[in-house]
Amino acid sequence: MPYYLHVLDRVQGAAHFMVSDDEAREIMRELLTLISGYMVPKLAREIGGEPSKTPLDLGLKQR
């Protein structure tokens, strides 16, 4: 089971995999409706200079 779903860096040869942060968030919101919460990976991005992957906020409201 995947731990992270990565928003890819903009590198040569990977343009066909590129999605915007908003598109990635929408994919994750749809995924949450299809599978159990503990199986949903964290949406993350690698940011230069940061010590680890940075989770992206999905913009979900708490109930």
Automatic annotation (TrEMBL):
Domain of life: Bacteria
Modified residues (N6-(pyridoxal phosphate)lysine): 53
Cofactor annotation: pyridoxal 5'-phosphate
GO molecular function: 4 iron, 4 sulfur cluster binding
Keywords: 4Fe-4S, Iron, Iron-sulfur, Metal-binding, Pyridoxal phosphate
InterPro entries, sorted: Aldolase_TIM, Lys_aminomutase/Glu_NH3_mut
Protein name as it appears in the record: KamA family protein
Native source species: Klebsiella pneumoniae
